[in-house]
Amino acid sequence: MRTRAIGLSLLAAALAVLLQTTLFGQVRIFGVAPDLVMLTVIAVARRLEAEPAVLLGFTSGLAMDLLGSSPLGLRALVLTLIAYATVRTRDRFDINVVATGLAVVLLSLLGVVLVVVIGTLFGEASFQDPNVLRKILLIPIYNLVLAVVVFPLVTLIVGGRRRRELLL
Question: Range of 40's domain?
């Protein structure tokens, strides 16, 4: 187990939570903010082994639950599932840049849909939000744009299984 990579991953996740709750909480494009924490979990989960990746997803989600207004455990569950899905599909990420971008969009879309559906089960009025469709469609696109910056940074900082790509 590479403890240095795990420690740096936790630091990257903490920075993403901090940026998500401060900067991205205030800056919204078309009424929607990107989900930097989810994108960071996707980027880091493709570099770590399975158990630390899933634990990082849970920890990041729990931090977002504690700092946000969503029910406790909602984001923890969703980001754990996204980390697991990333671990299960990460070998397909390295085919080419298009495959990586498509994986980011699909995993982000899955995460947003899970937040809405599971949030409704937790008693949130997610489907009654007039911006729910806008969020479902725009967050994956915003995450794709941010992936151009986040993925190379995570690759350089965390390293991991493969270091060959620097563009995505």
Answer: 3-158
